[in-house]
């Protein structure tokens, strides 16, 4: 988190310190701060907490409490809220406050259908243009998913899964597609975690990702696109299964780790 990023130096001005024990900033910390504004860092931290389920859907976000927790003033929090609203993760309600966005099952259905179409296009496009380096990147992410599935680490699997699909749409080179896709994925974050929290979901998901990469590596556009379409629609089916097993939603909104 960003706690301890704001501190006061001997001249009474704000100075940057590392999160650990307020030690002098390392070169890595300085590089991060130089390439990212404070509101952007706050946005990234809040986004991580929302996607990880630490701030569950429907939660009202308290500006003052978050500012204190992250060790920043309220200004960056307000700017981060506006950016998170644009990305589809929170909603701002006049005279009520800011809430983590809650998507109905009916709306999730529509989003999954649209996502499946975009995934199919991305699969076809990338299968035609992917370089050897691109394929190695995709394979590395699938390997991370394999490892997370073996450890039943839902949080690690979810991160690698999101990176995999984000890389796929990024490789299309279509900026509008990337922005649209990311918003859809953000809106589905709780449902996606819930589908992965079901018993037996991780092995199925990993097999599907292996099949997707195999078809891309073989230069098979139609098959790659179809594999991605079926993967997205399979996720929608698993989302519906969650409705009869509410505990999966609770697990998704919890620590991010499931155990057998």
Structural write-up:
The protein is mostly helical. The chain has two domains: 6-100, Arc Repressor Mutant, subunit A; 105-252, GntR ligand-binding domain-like (Four Helix Bundle (Hemerythrin (Met), subunit A)), CATH 1.20.120.530. The chain has twelve helices and five strands. It has helices spanning 27-35, 38-51, 63-70, 74-86, 105-129, 132-150, 154-170, 175-187, 189-197, 201-217, 221-242, 246-252; strands spanning 6-8, 14-16, 60-61, 90-93, 97-100. The protein has a three-stranded antiparallel sheet. Helix 5 packs antiparallel against helix 8 (175-187), helix 5 packs antiparallel against helix 11 (221-242) and helix 6 (132-150) packs antiparallel against helix 7 (154-170). The chain starts with 5 loop residues before the first strand and ends in an 8-residue tail after the last helix.
Give a short overview.
This protein is mainly alpha-helical and 260 residues long.
Task: Draw up the topology in text.
Layout (H helix, E strand, L loop, with lengths): L5 E3 L5 E3 L10 H9 L2 H14 L8 E2 L1 H8 L3 H13 L3 E4 L3 E4 L4 H25 L2 H19 L3 H17 L4 H13 L1 H9 L3 H17 L3 H22 L3 H7 L8
Antiparallel strand pairs: 1-2, 3-5, 4-5
Helix pairs in contact: 2-4, 3-4, 5-8, 5-10, 5-11, 6-7, 6-10, 7-8, 9-11, 9-12, 10-11
